[in-house]
Amino acid sequence: MINIVFCVAVLVSAPMTLERVIAVVGSEPVLHSDVVSLLIESGIEQDTAYEIEPSSPSYQQAMEQIIEEKLLVEAARREGLYPDRQQIEDAVDEAMDEIRSSFYSEQEFMDYLGSMGTTVAALRDSYSSMVGDNIASENYVRIKAGTAMSTMPSDAAAFINENLEIVLEVLAPANLSWIYLPVLPGDTQEAEALLSEVRVSIEAGETTFSAAAAEYSQDGSASTGGDLGWFSRGDMTATFEGVVYSLEPGEIAGPFLTPFGVHLVKLTDRDEERVRASHIIIIAQLTPSDLDLRIQQAEELVADLEAGMDFAQAVNDFSLDPDPDNVDGYLGAVNVGAWEGEMRETVINLSPGEISRPVAVEQDMAVAIFKTSDNQIIDWEVFSSDELNSMLQSVYWQNYYSGMIESLRSDIPVVVNFQ
């Protein structure tokens, strides 16, 4: 919700020259500042967003998204699906409560609004319009989705085989491999030195692991002597599991780094694929410079790969895949069209055998390098019936949605004007 507050603040503080109409949907204007706010919300720096030209692809994409949203709102109005005043007020109250909960105190919340040049009343007014429109478009889409799904074919495999062109366009499936590089915190020398001393004390019998965890660990497990309970592969971050699963019961490892900080870990028990472990963590926050460093290292690795380094060898030497069974980095057939943002744009247009540039994944906690297989024939039989049905729903809805938007465009006037 803080992101929404930020976007509202952008509208309030933006120069008046930005408040120009760039399109009209029905009788509703689309403002340049609407597009700028959406660009900022998508992750583009504020100063950069203000400078993006209306003719640029990113600006056009954001504008089209807003136009689609306004088409849905207008269609909802026409079908009597716009929420009443009480529904809007209730939704605004809920949104305001969620915003307030993100601050330590009411005074901090008020100070933030003051620093943004706005007030509680102005924020509520902004939300009233946004929330009403959001509920209206959701109501309309929900009804249309129900209509679409009621006519969906029952045989997913047959539909996919008979509509491969549409399926490939929407899902953009690709046979992919990757190199997964966790982003690790920098400036951890003091924490590593401390935990090295703690490990020496534990192994010398001067203290126990649980006592040391209670004294030094900086997460909630300190209250239980560092005990993390039973867990399986995939429950923890890959770097942590890689160390834990290499141990025998009673063994200690570390200090070592994960995206969350510096750890000591002790394996206490093992039951087939489940393990029980305790740890001591000194928390270290990731910073933008940590991500930048990992991207730089990944770019150097890409240069080596393009110069002839074997991809499989690079996977073996550098990748820390979250899936422990994925030893060769091969992800199989992946529906890239379902991805979002920079990750999608990085991979979707790769040619067979091509290596991608590095891209941040998992909320900037890792960096990935992707490679498409030379063979891009998709074997649909590798997917389960549930996966095929999920794909069918995605393709069928996307095809229905595109037709619905085109129909609304022909019924509701849309005028675009950059002058």
Describe the structure.
This protein has 419 residues and is of the alpha+beta class. It folds into 3 domains: 2-151 and 405-416, Porin chaperone SurA, peptide-binding domain (Triger factor/SurA peptide-binding fold), CATH 1.10.4030.10; 166-183 and 288-381, Chitinase A, domain 3 (Roll); 189-283, Chitinase A, domain 3 (Roll), CATH 3.10.50.40. The chain contains 16 helices and 11 strands. It has helices spanning 2-13, 32-41, 46-51, 57-78, 85-101, 106-115, 120-150, 156-162, 164-171, 189-203, 209-216, 238-244, 288-306, 311-318, 341-347, 385-411, and strands at 21-25, 28-31, 173-182, 227-231, 252-258, 261-271, 274-283, 330-335, 359-361, 366-372, 414-416. The strands form 3 sheets. A 4-stranded antiparallel beta sheet has the order 8-3-10-9, sandwiched between helices. A 4-stranded antiparallel beta sheet has the order 4-7-6-5. A hairpin with a 2-residue loop joins strand 1 (21-25) and strand 2. Helix 1 packs antiparallel against helix 2 (32-41), helix 8 crosses helix 16 and helix 9 (164-171) crosses helix 16. The radius of gyration is 26 Å and the shape is globular. The chain starts with a helix and ends with a strand.
Structure in a nutshell:
The chain has 419 residues and is an alpha+beta fold. The protein is built from 16 helices and eleven strands.
